Amino acid sequence: xxxIWLECCGHLSSFNIAGERYESHPQxxxxxxxxxxxxxxxxxxxxxxxxxFEHEYDYGSTTTLTISVLExxxxxxxKEKITVISRxxxxxxxxxxxxxxxxxxxxxxxxxxxxxxxxxxCQADHACGDEMLSPLYxxxxxxxCGYEGSVKYPD
Length: 155
Known about the structure:
The chain is built from three helices and seven strands, in the order αββαβββαββ. By secondary structure, it is mainly beta. The strands form two sheets. The protein has a four-stranded antiparallel β-sheet, with no helix packed on it. It has a three-stranded antiparallel β-sheet with strand order 6-5-7. The longest helix is centred in the N-terminal third of the chain and has 5 residues, at 2-6. It is elongated, with a radius of gyration of 18 Å.
C-alpha cells in the first residue's frame, strides 16, 4: 500500500488488526506501556477473509484506511512478495470553483482547508497560482504532504 498508494516522505505507519498494533518502526514500549509489534508477521497469520482492520500512514497529516479482507488467493511463488491483482476506481471530484466540471488538479494551499479541486478551465484563474497546483492521483494522499503519485504503478 505504501509503494502503490501512500508513500510520500517515508512517514511512520501502523496496522490495527484484531486489537493488535503493528508498527513500521516499533518501540520497546509505547507511551501506554504496551509493547509494539513490528511488521514482520506473515499476512496469513494475522488476517483472514471477513476481517476489517485499519492502516494509518503519517502521524502528522494522517491518512487512515479501513481495509476489508474479501478473499485469500494462493498463487505461484514469485520474486515479489506481493502482487497487485486489483485496484480501486479513482474518485471523481467536482471542481470547487465552477461546481460543474470534473477536477484534474488540486491546489495544495486550499487542500488544507478541505477544498482546492480544480477543472482544466478554472486552473488558470485560481488565486493561489500555478506553483500550488498538483495533479490529482488515484490515492487518498493526493494533495497531502509531498505525495506525487505512484512511481511503481502509475495511476
